[in-house]
Amino acid sequence: MAKQLTIFLENRPGRVKSICDVLQQAGLNIWAFTIQDRGEFGLVKLIVDKPSQAQLVLAERGFACALKDVLAVTAPDQPGNLNKLGSALLQKNVNIKDAYGFVSPSDKQGVCFLEVQNNDGVDIVALLTEQGFRLMSDEELYEL
Q1: Is the pTM of this model over 0.90?
Q2: How far apart are CA 58 and CA 109, in angstroms?
Q3: What percent of the chain has pLDDT over 70?
Q4: Domains in the chain, start-ordered, CATH in brackets?
């Protein structure tokens, strides 16, 4: 599983840049991100190269942040694979709560980070593997 770093911050100009400044100064790389508006506040969700270190440096600078496990699902970068992923999860009544991703330029693989709600105890790894997807291990992800 991947580690997603979630940062809670005021929704005002410059706050996202301040996160980027802290991470850049620490020599940390942002691989994927999403920003969600919550009125006066917002959530920034990041996948970074060194999640524990990123959490530490941001917390030291006063940012409210937490690490959370998310699935890192890979598939070849080709039309229809995201639809196929959604269909596989729907087939077993697994809800996608959050998702974002990127395409690895080195091997043309799409990487989708997913937070799912799995009320029926479905074996997600087996389900996705049967459909031709692969879940990346921490070691694989952080070696990209």
Answers
A1: no
A2: 30
A3: 99
A4: 2-68 (3.30.2130.10), 70-141 (3.30.70.260)
